[in-house]
Design brief:
The protein is built from 5 helices and 3 strands; from the N terminus they run ααβααββα. It is of the alpha+beta class.
Amino acid sequence: MSVKRNVSGEEELANLLYILMQPTRQKIVKLLQSGEPLYIEQIADKIKEDRRSVSFHLATLAENGFVEGEYKIIEGATNNPGRGRGAKFYKLTPKVATVIERLNTALQQ
């Protein structure tokens, strides 16, 4: 039997910030703030982290609603037109801005 705990707004905010403040996830969020959707290999190259690590952290961010992904064909991935390789492209959700706004509000109280 599971017991559902009532979490206060401050505790929820602290938990969300804990997720965002992990160093690799911070790098991913900062990179994706440009608005350009990127796939795992691009993100890993740009933040100079291992692809598997980036994949893990993207999964954590997605599970908590901070990023979302969409499968697309990678442009220029092959010399054979129309036969490109597919990848999941990630972008930030509005939840990141909402959490940052909540933090700013909490700090001003």
